[in-house]
Write a structure and sequence with these properties.
By secondary structure, the chain is mainly beta. It has one domain: Beta Barrel (OB fold (Dihydrolipoamide Acetyltransferase, E2P)). The protein contains 2 helices and 7 strands. The protein has a 5-stranded mixed barrel with strand order 1-2-3-5-4. A hairpin with a 4-residue loop joins strand 4 and strand 5. The termini are far apart.
């Protein structure tokens, strides 16, 4: 599946906004938790999709397979046409097959050195 995708990442919904270019394809801003494939995106990815309007819901973790779209956006489909979105509860076999991610937000945060607080 990842061979057909330009970006593969684990994410959570930040917000959904209207797409000024195509009202039938909303824009979801997704927080990137882990990335297996794609450019060095470290914070968020803007994703457009067609099909099921309830693909992305707050509080749910998703494994996303996406293709590059226009500009800084990515395209996913809510079916199995080479790019798709999986709820984390059904993504376990995919996560196991993907192996270790290229980038992991949690590891980066815990690897940061503590900052020393000095008084003036």
């Amino acid at each position: 599946m990842s061979d057909h995708s330009d970006l593969v990442f684990l994410s959570r919904l930040v917000e959904i906004s209207e797409n000024p270019d195509d009202p039938d394809m909303p824009i979801a801003r997704l927080a990137i938790l882990r990335r297996w494939k794609g450019p060095d995106l470290r914070r968020t990815a803007d994703v457009v999709w067609s099909g099921d309007p309830g693909v992305f819901l707050p509080g749910v973790t998703y494994l996303v397979y996406a293709k590059r779209s226009e500009g800084d956006r990515w395209h996913v489909a809510s079916n199995i046409c080479g790019n798709r979105v999986l709820h984390s509860h059904s993504a376990e076999p995919h996560l196991a097959a993907l192996g270790l991610p290229e980038w992991d937000f949690e590891k980066e945060v815990t690897a940061e050195k503590p900052r020393r607080i000095t008084s003036p």
